[in-house]
Design a protein that fits this description.
The chain is α/β, with parallel strands linked by helices. The chain has one domain: 2,3-Dihydroxybiphenyl 1,2-Dioxygenase, domain 1 (Roll), CATH 3.10.180. It is built from 3 helices and 8 strands, in the order βαββββααβββ. The strands form 2 sheets. It has a 4-stranded mixed β-sheet. The chain has a 4-stranded mixed β-sheet with strand order 5-8-7-6. A hairpin with a 5-residue loop joins strand 6 and strand 7. The longest helix has 12 residues. The radius of gyration is 14 Å and the shape is globular.
């Protein structure tokens, strides 16, 4: 098994707001599509990496107490973390050292999901 995680979904109530939030925070362009009545917007990933999407209509509701996903914070997670509040989220754990494993931070997104960031710097 190459990765313990293959896929993640971040549920939304307001799909367009959530996609805009992650586009701003992660400085990317999520790719939207609709399938079987469900809206999805895919985070960039390669064939060997873990993929994920913002979703609406899959029966899941945003939740701060469920599974915790850590997004790749790039070279320094302080950069995307610094965009969280202006995009409509709230930082709940500032950049925190975790020893030889780098740094983590956590935020509440605009939909009420608690999400983590990780980087080595």
């Amino acid at each position: 098994m190459a990765n313990a995680v293959n896929w993640f979904e971040l549920p939304s109530n307001d799909f367009n707001r959530a996609v805009d939030f992650y586009n701003k925070v992660m400085d990317t362009e999520l790719q939207p599509m609709e399938s079987n009545g469900m809206q999805m917007a895919f985070f960039p990933h390669n064939d060997n990496g873990v993929g994920g999407a913002v979703t609406k209509g899959n029966g899941s509701d945003p939740n701060a107490n469920g599974s915790l996903v850590y997004l790749n914070g790039g070279d320094d997670l302080a950069t995307p973390l610094g965009r969280v509040e202006s995009a409509g989220g709230t930082v709940v754990l500032p950049k925190t050292a975790i020893g030889e494993n780098g740094f983590i931070a956590m935020f509440m997104d605009c939909e009420g999901n608690k999400v983590g960031l990780h980087s080595m710097n």
